[in-house]
Amino acid sequence: MAEIRLINNLQGILYYLDTPLLDFEVKDRNLIKAVDLNGGNLYPMELAVWGISYGNLNAFFERRTMKEGCMFYREHLKAIGMERFDFDTYIRKNNGNNNLDNYWVKFPDFGAKCFRDIAEHNSCIWQLDGSESGEYH
Fold first, then answer.
1. Which of 23, 75, 94, 98 is close enough to 64 for a disulfide, judged by CB 3.0 to 4.6 Å?
2. The pTM of the whole model exceeds 0.70
3. 136: Cβ–Cβ under 8 A, 6 or more apart, which residues?
4. Which residues in the chain come in under a pLDDT of 70?
5. What percentage of the chain has pLDDT greater than the value 90?
6. 30 phi, psi to nearest 5 deg
7. Which contacts of 36-44 are long-range, i.e. CB under 8 A and separated by 24 or more positions?
C-alpha cells in the first residue's frame, strides 16, 4: 500500500542558507499562514514557478524524501528512528533539508537554528526532543 505523503500539521520558517524566505503554517492539511519574508526571491522551484499554496509546499517537501520502494528504504527509516513513514515527522527530523541544496526549515521548538547546524551535522537527524541522534550511514 502506498504511503500517504501529505503535510498534516507543520509550522516553521523556510530558509535558503541563512536567509529567511517564508514563514508558514499548515494545520489539518490547510495552509493557514504563508508570510513572504524575502520578496519572493530565492524560492524553490515549486513556489517560485507555481506559487505559494498547500499543494506546492507539499510538492516541495515530497521532493525532499526518500521514495517508498527505494533500495534500503526500510533500513533508512529505522536508522532515523521511524518504524513507519510519517511525512510530518520525516520533515521535522531532517529540518526539511535533503543535502542536495541549501533549503531547510527552522522549527520553533527544536532542530537546527542556523544553516551552520545543517552544514556541520549534515548526517545528523534531529530528535523531536531537540537532541541529535548522531551519525547514521
1. 98
2. yes
3. 79, 80, 123, 125
4. 1, 122-137
5. 57
6. -125, 135
7. 37/13, 42/16, 44/101, 44/103
